[in-house]
Amino acid sequence: MSHDGVEGAGRRWRQRVREWRPSRYLVLALLIWFAGGIGAFFLGEAYVEQQTRLHMNHTRQELQAAVVNAEQVALRAVEETQDLYALTLLRRELAARGNTEGAAAIESRLEALMRLGRFGIRQVSEIGADGILTWSTTRGWRPVDLSDREHFQVHRAGRRALFVSRPVLGRASGISTVQFTLPIIEADRFAGVVVVSLDPRLLSVALEQLRYESGIAVGIVRTADRTLIARSHDASRYIGLQPLTQASPVDRQRGRFGFMRTRSNLDDISAYFSYRIMEQAPLAIGARLSVSEATEPSGTLAMWIRIAILLGWLKLLATILWINQLVRTRRTRLGAAGARHMAQTESQAREQLQHLVADAPVALYAAQLEQGRRVLAYNFLTGNLQRLTGWSAEQLSEPGSIAARSDPVGQEARREFMARLAERGRAMVEYRLQRPDDSWIWLREEAQVTERDGGMLHIAGGLSDITAFVGDATP
């Protein structure tokens, strides 16, 4: 190109720049767009905070309800223990009076109750003042020295209230049990101990049979040293351990609910805890829900609201620019030329929208889902998909292309995702996706049904890279 040609092109370009001046209506619309976006952001954050508080209150209430239900199990076990204690004292009194038939009848009754195994009660026994086992419901029992047992020593030292031991191996029963004990007092003097042995595994089964919200676990601990004596989940793994947290129940909280967020030393899980110390026994009831499970609904809501605000903001800007360009086009072009330019303007608006979402944290798509099928048919995919996944929109637009690049677990998770989406109208799933360089990333996919047209569902969704939050995605 000659020097004159270059200079002429430059003059034409400068002339077009001088001719383009935003109208006052466009400037006003952009100011309103910007102010409205800021306002929508703060309103959205305020709504998210409000919903988070409401969900936290719901979590607290659910945990307290779980504590109350578990406390009823523990209370019935304590009441059963006290009834057995009274029967054992009556047996002792009848035997002392020489009423062997009455004593034998009570022994038969106690043995029958042991066979029922309510609340995990395995054995009732009696220890004399010298620490020697004098009677037990266990068949073939023999006198053994139990004077070294904690549950004997505390009553010999003067304790009159109910005592609960750590899980110990019973010398008469031969199984690991928790001892609920009360002293025998005759003539205001210590005369021995009545021992009711509970199998902590069976007591844990009673807790497990209660209905809880998903993810809630409950446990029963000794207040003396916080030894876990029963747990609704993974009981065999945790019974006998001492869960230590940054805050622990204290005696002044007896009968009142406590609530805290802390990390357990048993499995290193950060969780919300609700607990209450029983007034009828030296036991505390606790319920917990991991923070990840408790905050997932709030986190999902916050993400959707922020995505909706961002998309609405970007779409409004694209609409403003499109309308502005349309008005300018209609002013300068008439007839068929104007119609053709309008089509060109619409294409430019689409390109502008692609440009606006190029740096967004989420790749967006529109798709259709046929009822009864588990494969999306994509109508639109934003170009920033390649920046997030390494695959172009054309490569992932074919039905089943995303599933084909996932591992088997991810493929199954996406099939369940499609089922939930068709059933509930919205769903979320996390899975691994293999990039073109054979590396793996974690993706979070969220979608919702925007329209139901007979057997066809119209879907709007988004994909985001969460590898940095989840960790290594290598299989």
Can you walk me through this structure?
The chain is α+β, with helices and mostly antiparallel strands. It contains 13 helices and 16 strands. The longest helix has 73 residues, at 24-96. The model has no long low-confidence stretch (mean pLDDT 81). Helix 2 (24-96) packs antiparallel against helix 3 (100-116). The radius of gyration is 36 Å and the shape is elongated. It has helices at residues 3-19, 24-96, 100-116, 150-156, 200-208, 235-238, 291-332, 335-356, 385-389, 393-396, 401-404, 408-424, 467-470, and strands at residues 121-128, 133-136, 163-164, 168-169, 176-186, 189-198, 217-222, 228-231, 257-263, 270-277, 283-290, 363-370, 377-381, 426-434, 440-453, 456-465. Strands 1, 2, 3, 4, 5 and 6 form a six-stranded antiparallel beta sheet that branches. A five-stranded antiparallel beta sheet has the order 8-7-11-10-9. A five-stranded antiparallel beta sheet has the order 13-12-16-15-14. The two termini are 57 Å apart.
Q: Percent range for helical residues? A: 40-55%
Report the principal-axis shape. elongated
Mean pLDDT: 81
Q: Please describe the biggest sheet, giving its number of strands, its sense, and whether it closes into a barrel.
A: 6 strands, antiparallel
